[in-house]
Amino acid sequence: MRMRILGLDIGSKTIGVACSDALGITAQGITTIQRKTAKDDWQRLQALATERWVTRMVVGRPRHMNGEDSENVKQIEAFITYLKRQMPAMEFVYWDERLTTMMARQVLMAGGVRREKRKQFVDKMAAILILQNYLDAQGNTLL
Prior knowledge:
By secondary structure, this protein is of the alpha/beta class. It is built from 4 helices and 5 strands, in the order βββαβαβαα. A hairpin with a 3-residue loop joins strand 1 and strand 2. Helix 3 packs across helix 4.
């Protein structure tokens, strides 16, 4: 069985989650986790990783257009450090997520999703874009 990859868009209130197909070609949206505690968040991610045979997580790294890290990178790095201690066999990769939230909003608008509904889908869509960009850059040589 081929392993899959999770894509994560980590925010202060939610975590958008996407998963690759078994061939590492496409990303599909899975869920948006409402953040509670680091332990609760880890347990949700662990359950998703276990049920989908995930061996790698691609984590969106927010950056400004000039390439500098945004303000919330430190919180994301602290959470990933915690996850690495809880899941030592898991590989974590940071991926530049510049403009993914804006692109996610545009995709949802183009798809006819009403403004009041977009908020509940934007983090999951951003995770899809992060993971798909990563998969495309790897040229299907991942697994």
